[in-house]
Structure formats: structure tokens, C-alpha cells
Amino acid sequence: MRVVLVGNPNVGKSSLFSRLTGTRVLCSNYPGTTVDYCSGKFRLHGAEAELVDAPGTYSLESKSPAEVVASRMVDSADAVVNVVDASNLERNLYLTMQLLESGKPLVVALNMSDEAGKLGVKIDARKLGKILGVPVVETVAISGEGVLELVERMPDEGNVPKLLTEDDKWARIGYIVANVQTHRESRRGLVEAVEDATVRPLTGLVIAAVVLYAVFSIIIYCGNFITEKVFDPLFNTYWMPFAKERLRPILPPGVLANLLFGRNADLVDGLGILTTGVYVPVAMILPFVILFYLMLAVLEDSGYLPRLATLSDNLMHKLGLHGLAIVPTVLGLGCRVPGILATRMLETRKQRFIAASLLALCVPCLAQNAVIIGLLARQGIYYVALVYGILALLYVVAGVILNRVVGGESPEILMEIPPYRMPDLRSVLTKTWVRVRYFITEAVPYIILGVASVNLLYALGIMDTFTAEFGPPMSALFGLPQEAVVALLLGFLRKDFAAGMLAPIKMTAMQLTVASVLLVVYAPCLATLTVLYNELGFWDFIRFLAIMALATVVTGVTLNALFL
Amino acid sequence: MMEGENQEEYLEAIYGLKEDGREATTNEIAEALGVKAASVTEMLKKLHTEGLIRHRPYYGVELTERGLRTAAGVKRKHRLLERFLYDKLGIRKSEVHRQACALEHGLSDKAADALERLLRFPKRCPDDGKPIPKAGEVLPLRRHLGELKAGDTGKVEAFDGGDEFRGKMRSMGISEGKRIRVVAVEPFGGPVVVKAGNTRVTIGRGMASKIRVVL
After folding, report:
1. B63, B81, B114: which is the final residue of a domain?
2. Dihedral class, residue A269 (left if φ above 0, else alpha if ψ from -120 to 50, else beta)
């Protein structure tokens, strides 16, 4: 038995889903698409049944990937639960009409009836059920109200579908709304004024700055705390001594011992699979990734993200993107890996390519931010601002160029802005867990692989040849000391690693500024490159590498000419 | 033709296009007036510096509040004169438009009011049945969602983009006859945020320009 949850976006579908299934949830990519969906198990009429959470959609007309997926899911369903937002009955009923045409056993969950009540909307659920000819159950998914009744009333048989023309459907919706809904016009209150203020250009930007500052402060503060106060002691006091003194002696000294336990005793620099390979993903990246996804889920569920997207749409549209592209960008400021994964929310290949490329080229991740601020703040805030200014300029310039060069569609933004809601803890945790699990299975193995391969490159002497060959011409081109170029070249493993190598080199503040910009531009870290490869596919990945090489040379030479 | 008269002709032409629910692009205006596109461009620049119109990239021009008033005033004289020529002087319908065009610029506001009284406050012009604006009245022109300001309210009248676009907007809660309020207009050609019922929707400016609204 397979039951599918179908509904418009932002109607509380995922809350209902996690209410019904608990945490036994599996999320994946729908075959052949970029649409993510989740499925789980729940008990229905005494037996175990599968519950699928279809992507939120306004119709089943197969015009967007989400619609196609939702439509296919309905086809494969034994029964359908149509989640309807009671405060937006008219709009939601259109999908209901289409579901009735599928002839599948259908039950309507009239969700958020509490919120609708506050807005002055009253719906006669019994009458609605009578007109539609299917059970209608009032639910409040967040509190669990009505969820049991919903399961009990899930029907086994569908109705004989009545096919209606488009106009007939709307006429019928008009008739239904007029008969079951009473609407007492509520006055525009404080909440509404705040809702409006967050999308108005001036007030909205101020609020956005405050929100983003708060979010990043929390992530950086808590992330550093976990890394430094929890993982560093664990590794330094327990794991490293154990690995070094107990495990390493088992193996004869040589390439294999170096590969597993590092070329030296340093946690990052040593490049051992069991030392660096564990420390970097677990202690240095994971805390930030978890915090990111947690904050992202809160921002998502509170309804703030669509507002941020609205405010940034005018700029993003000039770069061939639209407002939603701000989400991957914001994520990328923490770690590019989740950022690049988030580019999936964009509709077309062109948009995804531009968003991922810009992210990998000009958005410094947390490690790079640490380098920029850590190394340059001592030289004066001017240089820090200069680096970010150059990167922002590069983002826009590269975006405008890519928009011209890359073929394909850049559809305009069309997006519902849901009302502000208190994030539901259950759904926030489920979302975070699902994403973190994806990061662990998809990105972590590659990071370990990356550590191992750089280790081998050193062992085989390839690294030294490489830097000897590329160091001198690059230093001539970019006006930086040769040691700095070497540090930059090695930075593709981890950017903070490069920071460690840049710090002791004697450079002027301007040279350091240029080095910091190039550190961001010239290559994303190995983890980012692998994710980028997975998301873009072979040819677009090659295209990206070409763009990256070009951007690095142009930026480096330009900055050298302007500032050095 | 005198400079001022020429300006009035242009404003009238733009007003006429808008009245028909069409875009006032350079080509449309040129066709309506029977002049070259280059001269239209020239005149539009002048009207813009005088604050009578504003440009909307890709969608031609819009009349400003002042432009709209001026245009409505001229249109009023034009249609009253048509009525007069047809009703009182017995000029043929096909003739009245050209005659009125020539006479309207010389007619003072006072004379127009007197003419209106004489004709017993006619509602529509004789040749194409368009409404005659009252003194100082600006008729509710069809507007695009893309040109409204934050705080404006109106009723959705129609969609320009074909069935698919109409279906998409409808399924998001923006349908014909629905009252909407413009919550915000993002600068630099950014999207428009509207509220329809209890739904807020962000709509790209291009799409918004395909939604016709009556204020």
C-alpha cells in the first residue's frame, strides 16, 4: 500500500509527513530529475504502509520538474492525501480538482485550520466533503490535531473521475468557496505590517542584514566552539597519541604508514587517512555543516527565505539567475558543498551552472573567510573590505558575462511568500538530519580520498615537481613571492591549510590582499570540486575548470597591474 | 504644427493606445500618428524631460500623473468637438476625427465646459464610442501590474500571456476578478510582491507586465 501526500508548497505537508512517519525517513533524488523527495513508513488500518511526500506543487500539469514528479507519484499511488491550506482554500482547490480527476482514493487534510481561524476564515469541512465527494478532515499538523482521524478515514476506493475543462474547474471552485467558506475581513494588524516590511526594498534590506549577521554569528561561534572545545581535545589527547603510539608501530615505516598515519604528526598537514582524513571532515567541517543545515531549516520553515529571494531578485536576474539563487550563495559563505547542492532549487541548467560556478569562484567559504579576516585584519580593516569588495565585483562581473555566454533559459521568479510561522522542531530536525546524512555519505568519502591522493602525490614527488614547474611563472604573473604561489597551489586540499602556509611568508599588505582574493578564486577545495563534478556532469565541469583558469589569470594579472 | 500642439497629439496617442490596452512603444505611436519612428523617439525625449511620461524598458512608455491629466484633458476636448461636429453641424462620422484633431488645441478649458453643457453632457464620442472624460477626471485606464506602486490596490482584469501563463497565475491564486494589493516593488526592474486573498506572491517584472489590472 502506497499513500502519497500531495499539496501546494508551504501548506504544512512536511510537518504532516513527519507527524505520520516519525524519523524512519528516507530522502533521495527522484530518478532522472533534480527533485528531492522523502518517503517513510506508517501504520494504516493495522498494516504497515509506505508514505511518500511528493514535492510541493500548484498543479499536475507537468510543466516544471516538481509537477512532473508529483504527477508520476500520484499515478503510482494506491491512495492520495491532499493537504490543503485552509487559509488559501480557493487556490488549493485547483490541485484538488486535478486529483479528483485521477480517480485515486482521496482524502483531503484541511490543514492549518487554526491559522485560517485567526485570519477570519471559517470553512465548513463537512459540507466541503459532501460537495467534493471525498472525506475532508480538519488538521493542525504541527500539534498533531486531526492526524489520527485522517488516517482512520483514508478510503480504499476512489470515485469515478469526472473530467472538467479548465474553466469548469474554476467555476466549480468558485461555487465551492462561496458555499463552504465564510470570510470575516480581518484588519491589517502588526503582523501584516512586519510581513510587508521584510519585502519592502529599504526596510527589507536592513532586516536582511541583521538576520544574516545573526545567523552567521551563531554558526561561526558555535562551530568554532565545537571544533576547539570538543573535537580538538578529543583528537589531541586521545586519538592522535593512540594512533601514533599504538597503531603506527604495527606497520613498518614507509609509504603505507605515511599514508595511514600521516607524513608528520600535524593533524592537518600530515595528510594521513586515519589522522587528517578523519580530523578534517569530522572535526573541522561537520560541526559547521550541521549548524548550517539547522539554521537553513529554521530560515526555511519560518518563511524567511522567500523574502530574501525577493529582495535579491533584481541583482540576481541580471546575472541570469533569480532571487532563489541567494540561498546557495548564503550557504556557500559557510561551506560550498551544501551551497552547490542547494543550486538544485533553480529551474534550468543554465541557472544551475551559473549559480554553481559563481559560488565556486567568488564566494569564500568559512575557512577562506577565516584566512581573509585572520591575516588581513591586522593590516587594517581597509584591506579586508578591499578583498570582499573585489570578490563581490567579480561575482557580478562573472555573472553578467556568464549570463551572456551560457545558453539556455533564465526564467523569472514566481514564488509564493508564505506567512511567518514558528518553525516546527520536529520538521527542522528531520530536515537537518536528512541533509547531514547526505553530506556524510556523499561528501565525506571524497574528502578522505582527496587527503589520500595528495599524500601519494607527495610520496611520489609529483607535488614538488608541480610547484617547481608552476611556481616561477605564476609568481611573475601575479606579483607574489614564489612561496606564496606554492601555498596557493596546495590550498586546493583545504583553504585553511593554505592560510597556514601564507601566514609566515613576508608580504606587503597589498600582496596579501591579492593572495587572499586568488585563494578564493583559483580553486575550490577538493570536496567542492567533487560535488561540483557530480552536480554539473563531465562537460559542464570541464567548462567550469576553463572558466576558473581564465578568471584566476585575469583577476591575478589585473590586480597585479592595479595594486602591486 | 506648434510645439505644444504636437506634444498634445503625442500624449493623446499614448492615451489612446493605453485605452485600447496596448503598449505605447515607439512603433505603435509612430503608426498611430503616421510619423517616422525617429521623430517619435525625439519627441518622447522631450516629453520625458518635461515629466509627462516615463520609460518602461521593453514596454514602451507610460504617462505620468501629469501626463495623464494633460492627455485626458485633450481627449475630452477632442471627443466633445467630435460630438459637436457630428450632432450640431452634421459632419460625417468619418470626417469628425480629423476636424477635431485640428480644433482641439485651440479650445480653452472654459469653452470645453460650455460645449459640454451645450451638448447636454454626452457620455461617448460619435465615431468609436469611447468615453468622454469629465473635466479634471482621469478615467481608470487599464494598467499593468508591472507599473503599479507599493500600496496600490486593484482588480485583476486579464492576462496577456496565453493559456499556460493564465493557468500558472490562477493556480497561484491570482485570477481574473481577484482584488490584489501591491505590497512591494523592488527597485531596478526587480519583482513585484502582491497580496491576493491570504496569499503573497513574488512575480518577476516581465510576468507582472502581462497582468492587466483595473485600479
Report:
1. B63
2. alpha
Question: How many domains is chain B partitioned into structurally?
Answer: 2
Q: Show residues of chain B in contact with A396, CB under 8 Å.
A: none
What grid cell was written down for A480? 607574489
Q: Which of A58, A59, A313 sits opposite B186 (nearest CB)?
A: A313
Average pLDDT over residues A387-394: 92
DSSP state of A156: S
C-alpha A423/C-alpha A407 separation (Å) is 39
- The residue from B63, B95, B115 where one domain ends is B63
Chosen from B193, B207, B209 to mutate, greatest number of chain A CBs within 10 A = B193
The closest CB to that of B183, out of A166, A170, A196, belongs to A196
Domain with B157 in it: 142-214
Give the domain A2-183 fold: Rossmann fold (3.40.50)
Q: Is B197 on the interface with A (CB under 8 A)?
A: yes
- Neighboring chain B residues of A61 at a CB cutoff of 8 Å: 167
Query: In this model, does residue B43 exceed pLDDT 70?
Result: yes
Contact B145, B200 (CB under 8 A): no
- Span A347-370, pLDDT tens digits: 888 999 999 999 999 998 866 776
Query: For residue A269, what is its C-alpha cell?
Result: 598537514
Cell of A21: 512517519
User: Does residue B162 belong to any structural domain of this protein?
Assistant: yes
Task: Give the mutation candidate from A173, A194, A196 for the B interface (greatest B CB count, under 10 A).
Answer: A196
Taking the CA of residue A552 and the nearest CA in chain B, the distance in Å comes to 30
**ipTM exceeds 0.85, yes or no:** no
Pairs of residues, one from chain A and one from chain B, whose beta carbons lie less than 8 Å apart = 105
* Cβ-defined contact of A317 to B204 (cutoff 8 Å): yes
A327 with A215: CB under 8 angstroms? no
Put residue A461 in one of left, alpha, beta given phi > 0 → left and psi -120 to 50 → alpha: left
